[in-house]
Every structure is written in C-alpha cells, then in structure tokens.
Amino acid sequence: METQQIKETIQMISEENLDIRTITMGLSLLDCITGDSKTTAQKIYAKITTQAAQLVPVADAIENEFGIPIVNKRLSVTPVALLAGSDPHPNFPLFAKAMDAAAKAVNVDLIGGYSATVQAGCTPADKALMASIPEALAATERVCSSVNVGSTRNGLNMDAVKIMGEVVKQVAAIDPVNAMKLVVFANAVEDNPFMAGAFWGVSEGDVAINTGVSGPGVVQRAIADRPDASFEEICEIIKQTAFKVSRMGQFVGKVAAERLHVPFNIVDLSLAPTPARGDSVAEILETLGLSHVGTPGTTAALALLNDAVKKGGVMAAERVGGLSGAFIPVSEDANMIKAAEAGQISLEKLEAMTAVCSVGLDMVAIPGDTPATTIAGMIADEAAIGIINNKTTAVRVIPVPGKTVGDSINFGGLFGRAPIMAVNDGDASSFVSRGGQIPAPIHSFKN
Questions:
Q1: Dihedral of the CA atoms 233, 239, 241, 247 (nearest 10)?
Q2: Among 122, 332, 103, residue whose Cα is nearest residue 198
Q3: With 214 labelled, which of 21, 296, 312, 334 sits at a CA distance of 20 to 30 A?
Q4: What is the mean pLDDT of residues 165-170?
Q5: Residue 90: how many CA atoms within 13 Å on its side-chain side?
C-alpha cells in the first residue's frame, strides 16, 4: 500500500468507525451425518472444535498486528435440516446444543446455520427443524437460525410462511432477545457472513474464510466533504470509498485464510450500521439532502447508495459476495432509531426501502399482540419483493410481549434500542391460510 493509502486507512479506522465487522469461517458439516442424532451431534462438536480452533487467535493476532478492528468472529455451517440423514426422529435441539457448545469452546461470537431451505417444499426434517426453533434458540446463547421460504426460481412456499409467522411469535414469547437470532429469507445466499442469516451452502467447499466489512461513517464523511456535488459526483465518491474499504476486507481475509491454511472465499461489503454516533446508514441518506430518513426521496437515495457501494466493491476484491450493499436495521442505526421514535418512518416506508437495500425488514420491534398471521403476511410481502426483483429480502421482526406503540426495548451493544412500531391492523389470516405455493414469476424461466 502507498503511504497516502495507509494514512487514509488509519484515519478511517480512528475517526470514521471503519472496521472488519466479521471474519466468518464457513464450514461444511455434511460429513457429520450418521443417521443417529447423538452420534451426529458428537461429530458436529468435534469438527467445529478441530477446524475452527485457531480462528479467534488468528483474528486477534491480525487485529493487534495491523491495528484493524475486527468486531466479530463467527462460524456458519451447513443448513442443519440436512443433517438428519436417515434418522426417522432427528433431535434437532441436540444439534443446536452441540453447535453452541462448540462455539463457546472456540470462543466465536455467533454460529449460524440452524437453518432450512424450503422455497420449493418441506421435507419431514425441514418441518421438524422449524418446529424446534423456539426450543433451540431458548436453550442456546450463540446459535442463529434462518429459514428460506421463497426464491425467484421456485416461487413462495406459503405453507412455510404461515409456519414461520407462528414460530416468530413463539420465539419472542419465550424471550424477545431470541427473535434477534431468527431471520426468514427469500433468495438467501450461501456465502453470507452476517448474522442471523448466515449458513454455509451445500455448493460451497468444506471450509473457507469470508469477511464482512462495514464503513457507514467513512462514506458519510466523504459525502459531507462535498456538499455541492452532483449525483454523478456523489456516486463516484461512494465508489472510490467502497473500493478502499473492500481492499481492507480482502487484505484481512486473505491473511487470515493463509494463516489458517484454508481458502479465502468472499468479501461482503455491507454498510452495516451500529447505534454508535457517526456509524449510521440513515445519516448517509440525510447527508445527501434529506431532512430525515423517511422523507420522500429516501428510497431513491438508498438505491443510489446501494448501487454505488456494490460498483466500488466489485472492482476492489477478487470475489465480492454475501449480501453486499446497505443494511437498514432499525434498532442498530442511531438515526433510524431517532426517526422511528419521532414517527417519521413507518413499516410501509421501510418495506419500500427494502426493494433497493441489501436485505429487508430488519431488527424491527412490533407490538407483542401482533397476530402470527400478520407476521406471516409481512414475511410474504418481503419475500414477494425479493422474488419479483430477483434479490435477497428478509424479515427479522421482534413481537415484544407486553409492549405497544410508543414503548421501546433495549437490546444493548451492537443491537441497540428498538422503538415499538405500529403495524397495520388488517386481518391477513384468510390469505395466509390458503396454503400451497405462490408460483415463480414468468421471468424465472431462463433455461
């Protein structure tokens, strides 16, 4: 790196909240399948603790050596529904406990992959895993869960959507904090290093390193320095900034992979905010000229940001993957929290923004008495946006028992504070109860 680049990187880290948000090791557990739950669980623990034993020490050494903050060290594994094998009565919570114990043993922050991919239909194992999610998340600390209910190629599995509306309610009823560890997807990607939706797809190799880089503050500062720039100039500024940030992610990932003697896979350049001041995606949109996030023009501003980030990142890294773009989690973004508390942004506006952002309705707290069928309707709406637009969308909503609009829940740390947002009081029960599959859109047929 040139001297000027080094100086710029130091400034971005020290003043603008630039960090490696996660180093995530993807790990296949297909060779742990035995047909017996107890034996499979033992093999899961053994493989994780063997393969990932040095992940945290290596990440810590890189952080200390180069002065680059690495916020989280994580694991993603094969979707656990696939591990049932020929076991007629798989004990999925036993698998979750093995994952959790292994995650603690190697000292990673989170482990993702307690997952099922049911966009085209559900096997008995898929149904059993979905039913077990409330118990599994209540019995573990570091396990994250996801279910993919739709895809552009397969359409939308409304039977699974209805089930997941009920599962979300059940998870939150035990402890709303557990709902932060559950996300429902359409078009989920197999190399996502970010939680709660990370899993290691069956088309991936046995093991690899992915990095997730985040720098909302860096982008915001760069735009703020050019208050009179045109949109073309703004896009160029964002691309150049994303290029620098992606370079850092690739550098750290390749060093980690080399020291762990495993392949390096992808950089996920996602502007993932935190509640910290100056680390907000919403603030970027406001710096572009909006009085607050939610103002007319917000969706256009987010589309500009997301596209420019991806263009800059693609040029900087050998392989850009994951979700890459901009996240809009309500509770994890200081300016988004402020707008939600002031009533300046609604669920409907958030839904519109998800058509152009990286994921979907994320870290949204809703009243605890919201019906499961309404949550299922929210999942269906988000999935429809993803399916029709051939992009990833997701729902991570938290129905907080005993809370209503005007209240809030404090999750602490990176998860922030979530104002309880109003939900449309319409009844979706008849719609979500029809059952079956919403067919794939016409443009899915490309063979």
A1: -160
A2: 103
A3: 296
A4: 96
A5: 27
CA atoms within 13 A on the CB side of 244: 24
Mean pLDDT of 19-42: 91
Instruction: Between 241 and 232, name the one with better pLDDT.
Output: 232
Which pLDDT does position 15 carry in this prediction? 46
Are the C-beta atoms of residues 416 and 198 closer than 8 Å to each other? Answer: no
- Whole-Å CA distances, 361 to 90, 154, 180, 353, 425: 32, 22, 12, 9, 18
Give, in order, the Cα–Cα distances in Å from 444 to each of 323, 367, 394, 436.
Answer: 20, 36, 19, 19
Beta bridge partners of 326: 271
Distance CA 313, CA 307 (A): 10
pLDDT digits (tens, 9 = 90+) for 374-393: 999 999 999 999 999 999 99
Residue for token digits 């895993």? 129
Residues 6+ apart with CB under 8 A from 232: none
pLDDT band for 13, please (50, 70, 90 cuts).
Answer: low
Tell me which DSSP letter residue 292 carries.
S
pLDDT for the residue 217: 78
User: Distance between CA atoms of 345 and 330, rounded to whole angstroms?
Assistant: 10
Q: In terms of DSSP H, where are the helices of 83-185?
A: 92-106, 124-139, 158-174
Averaged pLDDT, 82-96 = 91
- Measuring CA to CA, how many Å separate 315 from each of 22, 241, 311, 320, 330? 21, 12, 7, 9, 30
Identify the DSSP state of 185: E
Identify any residues that bridge with 383 across adjacent strands, giving them in sequence order.
none
Three-state secondary structure call for residue 155? strand
CA-nearest of 325, 193, 323 to 257 is: 193
- 315 burial (CB, 10 Å; 0-12 / 13-18 / 19+) is middle
| The two three-digit tokens of residue 263, written as one number | 């392949």
DSSP collapsed to 3 states, 400-436: ECCCCECEEEECCHHHCEEEECCCCCCCCHHHHCCCC
Longest dimension (CA), the chain: 65
Backbone angles phi, psi at 138, to 5 degrees: -70, -30
- Alpha-carbon distance of 147 to 188, in angstroms, equals 9
Burial of residue 23 (CB within 10 Å: 0-12, 13-18, 19+) is buried
Distance CA 143, CA 101 (A): 10
Helix (H) or strand (E) holding 393: strand 393-400
Average confidence (pLDDT) over 140-166: 96
Percent of residues, the chain, with pLDDT higher than 70:
96
Task: Using the structure block, give the residue that is written with the tokens 């750290």.
Answer: 252
